[in-house]
Amino acid sequence: EVQLLESGGGLVQPGGSLRLSCAASGFTFKNYAMNWVRQAPGKGLEWVSGISGIGTATRYPDSVKGRFTVSRDNSRNTLYLQMDSLRAEDTATYFCAKDQGNWNYVFDFWGQGTLATVSA
Amino acid sequence: EIVLTQSPGTLSLSPGDRATLSCRTSQSLTSNSLAWYQHKPGQAPRLLIYGASSRAAGIPDRFSGSGSGTDFSLTISRLEPEDFAVYYCQQSGTSPYAFGQGTKLEIK
Asked: Do residues B78 and B62 make contact, with C-beta atoms less than 8 angstroms apart?
């Protein structure tokens, strides 16, 4: 059974940093691209990063490019999202999502999310 | 950047009814790269449909997807109580991989 468990959310001041983690199990982690998707309170879903199976290629939308960094440790089956220069509009529940293949950007399994709140 | 517009914003129906949700994209999608997800509060989103019309593993056959180009739809043939949720479409062909704003399917 595929399981994805996010952690690392919390309250941080504007301009601060937060590092999210996603522990994966139930599948061969290194064989699949992984992604982060967020949902601001009362809003819809927004894709915020993707990383290839071996971790050599990453992609971001303009809204987070230069501030967020996605990485992975395939020896620990763990995905990370380093979030720097945080803004109030980054407040959201962050989900990790497994790619259906390698870079087809269809998300076939999701975690339950971790809440990051950016506020003074 | 491709923009996805879903309609209606809210759909009020009863169990046993047929539901049709619409998703329109601002540009034609390559390879019909359109997916549908179901999301309930406090839960992980669930993939229903990919490639516009292929059901994901374990999804009941009352869920079906159709469409091409810029116009897509998700149909639930006979609503079950557990189907009331928010539904999102998403394009998976071109970065950024955007979602629609969602359709809330509520019990009438």
From this structure: yes
Is residue A45 classed exposed, middle or buried when 0-12, 13-18 and 19+ CB atoms within 10 A define those classes?
buried
Nearest to A109 by CA among B61, B6, B37: B37
Q: Is B30 helix (H, G, I), strand (E, B) or coil?
A: helix
Other CB atoms within a 10 A radius of the CB of residue B5 amount to 13
Contacts of A16 (CB under 8 A, 6+ apart): A86, A118
C-beta atoms of A107 and B42 within 8 A: no
Instruction: Give B45's contacts (C-beta < 8 A, 6+ positions apart).
Output: A37, A45, A95, A97, A107, A110, B37, B38, B39, B88
Compare all CA atoms of chain B with the CA of A63 and give the residue at the minimum distance.
Answer: B96
Q: How far is B92 from chain A (nearest CA, A)?
A: 5
B62 touches chain A (CB under 8 A): no
The one-letter code for the residue type at A46 is E
A65: Cβ contacts below 8 Å, ≥ 6 apart: none
Q: What pLDDT, in 10s, does the model give residues B23-76?
A: 999 999 978 899 999 999 999 999 999 999 999 999 999 999 999 999 999 999
Give the whole-angstrom CA distance, residue B83 versus residue A26.
26
Point out the residue among A44, A61, A107 whose CB comes nearest to the CB of B96: A61
